From TrEMBL:
Similarity field: Belongs to the class-II pyridoxal-phosphate-dependent aminotransferase family. Histidinol-phosphate aminotransferase subfamily.
Species for this entry: Sulfurihydrogenibium azorense
Requisite cofactors: pyridoxal 5'-phosphate
Keywords noted in UniProt: Amino-acid biosynthesis, Aminotransferase, Coiled coil, Histidine biosynthesis, Pyridoxal phosphate, Transferase
Top-rank EC class of the record's enzyme: transferase
A Gene Ontology molecular function term of the record: pyridoxal phosphate binding
Quaternary state and interactors: Homodimer.
Protein name: Histidinol-phosphate aminotransferase
Residues forming coiled coils: 253-280
EC number annotated for this UniProt entry: 2.6.1.9
Pathway(s) per entry: Amino-acid biosynthesis; L-histidine biosynthesis; L-histidine from 5-phospho-alpha-D-ribose 1-diphosphate: step 7/9
Length: 353
């Protein structure tokens, strides 16, 4: 009887089929350089593994604040940050602490499934609304969701799994209604569109989420929230103690300082490969390629399930999204290294020739 509430819970699922080329999880295709790894080794051996890590991750926060400030040309301080064991943990924290648990969590579909998963885990109602056929927000959908009186709204922009950025004017309408609004910018490093960081630093009801997982550090699970100092301070009260491990703090600090140019170079390479791969796949007459501001893109084929399986037969793992609303026959493809992308392009040509 104690687990009754979890019986119908739909857990987060990922694609784990073993393949030579893995283009399914939106990870960076690039590992850290040997030089950076050597620096990390030097610092890791100094850790007192029997001790708890710094509960406030002071040095990591300082490095992260400086990294974001330089990247955005805005003043971001450590007091503007809340750190999470991946941005997933912060999503769960926000759904748990913001507003009344009896009031809905608002988000569009299709979008990042953790909004639904975390809402269900805490037993919170959901105000879901559909994107249009171009995977954009609609004023009608937003208005219908707002009628359910949500306390918190999530917008992933660029959106996962569609890859596109949302209309900022429509998001601002939700913000102006006074709804606590979370802009999930996990993929913002691959976008040239304007972000919401400045808004988050000015408004009491807006926060921005980002992560290091998409730019080369998925293994250490480091997400972060940016908000006004007083907002960040209050939300940080609900954070679990010692949630950022000592190794994560050490690795994160080194990469954000000594490795920041390496990260920028890798991001640039992904954006260039995205353009090339999307152009090549667009040449296949029966495949539709959707615009992307992320480190992946979405394509639609005549039979998504069959295409997904045929790619696996050729050693290429992608993510079949056909089970989601509005995404019948759609496949999400992460951008890999050039040689991996060439394998994918070759496989697609074989399938559709």
């Amino acid at each position: 009887m104690y687990l009754e509430r979890l019986k119908n819970l739909k857990a987060y699922k990922t694609e784990t089929t073993p393949c030579k080329v893995k283009l399914s999880s939106n990870e960076s295709p690039f590992d850290l350089s040997e030089k950076l790894k050597e620096r990390i080794k030097e610092e890791i051996v100094k850790i007192n593994f029997q001790r708890y890590p710094d509960p406030h991750a002071k040095e990591l926060k300082e490095a992260l604040a400086k990294f974001v400030s330089e990247e955005e040309n805005l003043e971001v301080s450590p007091e503007n940050l809340v750190l999470g064991n991946g941005s997933d943990e912060i999503i769960h924290l926000l759904i748990t602490v913001i507003g009344d648990l009896k009031n809905p969590v608002m988000y569009p579909v299709p979008s990042f499934p953790m909004y639904q998963v975390s809402s269900d885990v805490v037993g919170r109602p959901k105000a879901e609304f559909l994107l249009d056929d171009n995977f954009q927000l609609t004023e009608e959908g937003i208005q219908e969701a707002l009628k359910q009186n949500p306390d918190i709204a999530f917008f992933a922009s660029p959106n996962n799994p569609t890859g596109n950025s949302f209309d900022s004017k429509l998001i601002m309408k939700v913000i102006e209604k006074g709804i606590f609004t979370v802009i999930d910018e996990a993929y913002i490093h691959f976008s040239d569109k304007e972000n919401f960081l400045k808004v988050a630093l000015e408004y009491d009801n807006v926060v921005v989420l980002r992560t290091m997982s998409k730019v080369g550090l998925a293994s250490i699970r480091l997400g972060y929230m940016i908000a006004k100092k007083d907002v960040a301070r209050e939300i940080d009260k609900g954070r679990l103690p010692f949630n950022i491990t000592y190794p994560t703090q050490v690795i994160g600090k080194i990469v954000l300082t000594e490795g920041k140019e390496e990260l920028k170079s890798q991001i640039k390479a992904v954006k260039e490969e995205r353009k090339r791969v999307m152009e090549e796949i667009s040449k296949i007459p029966s495949v539709t390629v959707y615009p992307s501001d992320a480190n992946f893109f979405l394509m639609k084929t005549p039979d998504g399930n069959k295409t997904h399986q045929e790619l696996i037969k050729r050693g290429v793992l992608t993510r079949n999204m056909s089970h989601l609303p509005k995404m019948e026959n759609c496949i999400r493809v992460s951008i890999g290294r050039k040689e991996e992308n060439d394998e994918f392009i070759k496989a697609m040509r074989e399938i559709f020739t």
